[in-house]
């Protein structure tokens, strides 16, 4: 791809005009829009006087077990590819479950492990990049070393992953968003999942942190089927290798939803024994509310199609504008995800920070450049994450056109 | 008090008759009864289509800060004696907040501390006994040493506490249920709170874990006013000493409620910085639901009077039966709490385990003897916790009469 030259004067004029418009637009965060939240309006009146779970448990009281309501776990077992018995419904988000999985691993010996991570001389985790900043921050907070691994369209570069984990017993885990990855939108291939499940690791207590945040978040009818990580791990003799996370955050209400944790029976026993000291049980009323609202896996599918009807035109608009403005210019490439919440724009090397700075000054808020990489450090300074979900389409279009103006100026000034 | 002799034969006959009735009764747990939960029936339809917080935040979405909704924190600031700015509304219970406070203290240096608790050669906590088993279990799980301190009617024996914390830098904290204590029902005196706030501690990062679980849980109109621990700590130059916990678990719905954490500004900053890595925010819809339902501190007071109308007759029934059956016998003493969820029965030394065993065989489930003490070890083997809240009054009376039969037999057999 050859790069078309950008005229500095016209780029400056365009940017001055952009600033002159005094915009205030925000495409930073993967937040559902109010129209998407309206799809779950029934949750604001449910459970509508009911309070008994299907097994007769009074959801308003203590008791009923720490696993969460069976009727809700059943709804998500298929989407998350976890047997119901090994799937817990707990908390209001998956982020806190990932955090707690790290905490429990630091403070208690994992199945297969020899000592607590806190007692290891060094704990490191692999971070496919670009990736999700909150994964990196929560690990970094505990002094865990973050090691970058390149993402491909089929998931992390497995040649690199296999080599690192085989050599280095300090590497205890890998962060994965296996479907419609944040932020590239790619889905791990069967071969990638099989290699993750089967690879030799120097650490006996290596864990895949499988953040299946976008399991049912399709944008098109082309719905890739993710390989079953728990089954493949078991098949390869590494049954305890994967921790599976999910939530209803971008299905129903963000923050007022339900988190899920799935793993091998041994991992679930380990987790449950520890977490029993922390909680008498999850918010079962909210779980009943969700079970009544979503009903079953087909209910989730039907509900997610309504989300797609709202989201797909926004993703299409971003792609259309980028194609109109930058197509064939060689100035940038971008992803065309079939699901999830993000588009990754790859700008010329060394320009992403400047683009984001220029956009900010022009009233267009973007995720900080570098946020997609551990320690906020994108070595190529090229990755920009676009979150099309929250703004209405007119504002989104304006924001993306503004972003293009900033990209052109950054490239022109650098030349 | 002199102990009346118990006739073995009649005690055995009474016990055989009790067993013959094939009871199945449970007075183990401090659970609200269904009638109490019915008081919060409106929560099962609220927020009834509303979703905007008073500051305009869309409670259905991410955002709006990690402190929780101001309108709900305002409702509980008075009862928990924490300034609104220093009171967080988070999670669905206080137990998880206590757990996480211990975890964060293990993994991050506290304000005033020199190193993480995980890096200390030894971490111990004082446990006033009898006390709450879940406090003990969560600390024990992290290898924290538990040191017993006697409870008095005015709180922990402060002569013992002051001596221990002054000498031993390994003692990092004390568990307190300062009002209507679990299980004795006593409320800490002003002098106790003042001494806790002001005492010299060898550990610079000593913390009072102030589990104010029963702040508004009165059974009578005689409502003791607890001294303000945060204010007294600040006054004594130990502003960061107290962590305050509370929840709506026994106000609205157990498990589907809201937890609260209060502390000094420095502690709140410490906590918030760490917890921001764990969560994007609490379940704001549930917080809105609670704010709409309870309205303000007066709303809480009115609501708690309805609880008292249900609970007070149960506590009175236990006291009446114990007085009828054991009054003047010298065989036992028991507490007459003015609030909270428990009555402590003190049996003759060395009989509690046997009483609980006999009761279990007769179909009357009691909290395991020893559960009120760290490591399940009540050195006198004399403390039995009675939880009158859950059963309806007829069953409760039967259970307490059964307990008396078991007590008499255990005493007679031992003699």
From TrEMBL, chains A, B:
Keywords: Aminotransferase, Antibiotic biosynthesis, DNA-binding, Transferase. Gene3D superfamilies: Aspartate Aminotransferase, domain 1 (3.90.1150.10), Type I PLP-dependent aspartate aminotransferase-like (Major domain) (3.40.640.10). It holds the Pfam family Asp_aminotransf. One of its GO terms (biological process) is antibiotic biosynthetic process. It comes from the Bacteria. The keyword Transferase applies. This is DNA-binding transcriptional regulator, MocR family, contains an aminotransferase domain. GO terms for molecular function: DNA binding; L-aspartate:2-oxoglutarate aminotransferase activity.
